[in-house]
Amino acid sequence: MVQEIGRERAEAILGSAIRKAAIAEGARYRAAAAEVAEDDPVAAFAELFELWTRGGALEIELLGQGPERFDFDVTRCRYAEMYREMGLGGIGHLLSCGRDGAFVEGYDPEMKLERDQTIMSGASCCTFRYRRAPAGG
């Protein structure tokens, strides 16, 4: 695809498709956990996040969690390691990192991800700071 339409356009198409799929996947997970998620959306999301850490895929350091926030750093990312080993390090941010904010958007439009750095981009850790507006505010 890169040879046909160029790297920038190919990455834009891939990124857009992955974003749409991640939003839809987030919405499906929210629907499956609707009752629990309504009571405490951030806690329900934190439980769901454990799926991605299974088998050591991500090693995290939990920094804090409450009704309006879920903060942690990823200190080891086997997804980044895998993409680099496959020679796909240049698009790993599209394949994995870019999904995170889009997934939470589909899961709960009131939640937002703030992330300043990723292992995929060469940082020592990935900073995940999820925020949710207070209920009724």
What does this entry show, briefly?
This protein has 6 helices and 4 strands, in the order H-H-H-H-E-E-H-H-E-E. With 137 residues, the chain is α+β, with helices and mostly antiparallel strands.
Uncertain ranges: none
Report the major sheet: 4 strands, antiparallel
Provide the gyration radius in Å.
16 Å
Considering DSSP H and I runs of 4 or more, what fraction of the residues is helical? Answer: 40-55%
CATH architecture: 2-Layer Sandwich
Work out the count of structural domains.
1
Q: Indicate the overall shape.
A: globular
The topology string of helices and strands comes to HHHHEEHHEE
The helix tally amounts to 6
In total, the number of strands is 4
Task: Report strand %.
Answer: 15-25%
CATH topology-level name: Muramoyl-pentapeptide Carboxypeptidase, domain 2
Overall pLDDT: 90
The strands making up the biggest β-sheet line up spatially as 1-2-4-3
Helix/sheet category: alpha+beta
Q: CA-to-CA gap between the ends?
A: 46 Å
CATH class label: Alpha Beta
Describe the fold and architecture:
This protein is an alpha+beta fold and 137 residues long. The protein has one domain (2-132): 2-Layer Sandwich (Muramoyl-pentapeptide Carboxypeptidase, domain 2), CATH 3.30.1380. It has six helices and four strands. It has helices spanning 2-5, 7-32, 34-39, 41-53, 78-85, 92-107; strands at residues 58-66, 69-77, 111-114, 126-132. The chain has a four-stranded antiparallel sheet with strand order 1-2-4-3. Strand 1 and strand 2 (69-77) form a beta hairpin. Helix 2 packs parallel to helix 6 (92-107). The radius of gyration is 16 Å and the shape is globular. The model has no long low-confidence stretch (mean pLDDT 90).
